[in-house]
Design goal:
- The protein is mainly alpha-helical.
- The chain has a domain of 250 residues: Cytochrome Bc1 Complex, Chain C.
- It is built from 16 helices and 2 strands.
- Strands 1-2 form a two-stranded antiparallel ribbon.
- The longest helix is centred in the middle third of the chain and has 33 residues.
- It is globular and about 70 Å long.
Amino acid sequence: MSEKKSKQTLLEQMGNSQIWKSIIRSGVPKTRRQRMHAILGSVFLHLHPARLPKHAVKIGYTWCMGGLSFFLFVVLTITGIMLMFYYRPTVEYAYTDMIDLGEQVPLGIMREIHRWGAHAMVLTVWLHMLRVFMTGSYKPPREFNWGVGVLLMTLTLFLSFTGYLLPWDQRAYWATVVGVEIMDKTPIVGDFMARFLKGGPTPGQMTLSRFFVIHVMILPAGLMGLAGLHIFLFRKAGPAGPFRGTPEQLKAKTDYFFPRQIWKDIVAMASTFLIICSLAFFEPVVLLEEATPDPGDYHPEPEWYFLFLFQLLRLKIFGGEFGQFLGAIAIPGAFMAFLAALPFIDKNPERDIFKRPVALVGWIVIMTGILIFTVSAILNREFLH
């Protein structure tokens, strides 16, 4: 009994400390009123409602992908800043700096964490969009927030693409060449964008400098602004949740965001970070030879999340300049536009995916196609090697 009392006293002392109150702005919450004040009075916690529907915050429903995506962006920001202390975005030093990060710099593993974290963020953002689609959470009144999510997914892919060049090895060089050539096929603005990014007839110092600025300043600023808007819109509309029961019944079944829900997010974030660190330690990224205009025996290919598009462009139907434009720009662009317009196209109020057969079959067909083309690209790579 005395041990329990001492623990409570210690907890109360922590809750009354200046550090705790500067963040939470109240003592350790014990009652319903105190929990609500803890959330509404905190600069961090007030981004979420004081109470949330229980069915809308279950891990089996949310997958914690929204919080994980934001957490991974923070990890990438921190590791990216640390890498900037040791990286010089010049053709002369970029490649050797990458080698020194792995062999000389004490915290060189930050590059591995940054790379695996980027892969993980692409995956979590995609899974978050998938979860929203499967649960029909893009339907009114959340149409605009779905569009913001589509933009966030696009910026995430561009962030990964622009960071791909920075190591300045053969993989980075030729993936950028292929990407810029695809961009060049965009009508009206394609030629200007390609010339601007390359800064010359072939990728060189100007290309590296411009990709660096876009990667560390322009895209992160845009992503942070859209992420803030995304969170604000979520805060105003609230979570959608699986609609089972009457609105009165669902409203009655609520839970506090703090401290119950936040612990679920913390566990998910800690587990994800542990996996990333394990991959960074046991599966480090291998640099190829330094970038050169001569590919030699290297067969250019993009990262795994662009492999399906890379394999699609190999089909005969997409041969020639118009075919390349159709496969690289028109079809992906039309698909992203369709995703953004989906809440205005799908007028069915039903949110259960198994009661939306057209949406379910369409999604299965698209995902099956992407999987087939991705696997085909991997098998083709193994054959060439």
